[in-house]
Design a protein that fits this description.
Elements: H1 3-23, H2 33-46, H3 50-72, H4 79-89, H5 92-115
Helix pairs in contact: 1-3, 2-3, 2-5, 3-4, 3-5
Length: 117
């Protein structure tokens, strides 16, 4: 899969999973971290190179976190404040996703090196 397609698919998965997690999946609880982490690990394993993994993981993490925060916020907050809140705190998502993706790539490379004679 080329870089652009990988990033676009990762972003779409982030939007879909964020929307599901905010309303339906586990009721917005901490259990959502499990499927989020599985997808970040999959990005690390499926990306063809490090740059693609970083871009795809960053886009996935940001869109996942921003959409989740927007959909999970069901209070009487005005729409503009909900959007700004989600956009600002959405910056936490890429940091976590990129760290997990890079850790996955490092571990998988080490395992492959051990298998080679």
């Amino acid at each position: 899969m080329n870089r652009t397609l990988t990033v676009v698919v990762s972003g779409a998965v982030g939007i879909g999973l964020g929307a599901l997690s905010g309303r339906i999946l586990f009721g917005g609880s901490a259990w959502n971290l499990i499927p989020w982490a599985i997808v970040a690990i999959a990005i690390g394993l499926l990306a063809t190179d490090r740059v693609t993994a970083l871009l795809a993981s960053g886009v996935y993490g940001y869109l996942l976190c921003a959409v989740f925060l927007y959909t999970a916020n069901t209070g009487n907050t005005p729409q503009a404040q909900r959007i700004l809140f989600a956009l600002a705190l959405g910056l936490v998502g890429p940091v976590c996703s990129i760290v997990l993706t890079l850790l996955t790539r490092v571990i998988s490379r080490q395992l492959v090196r051990r298998r080679e004679p």
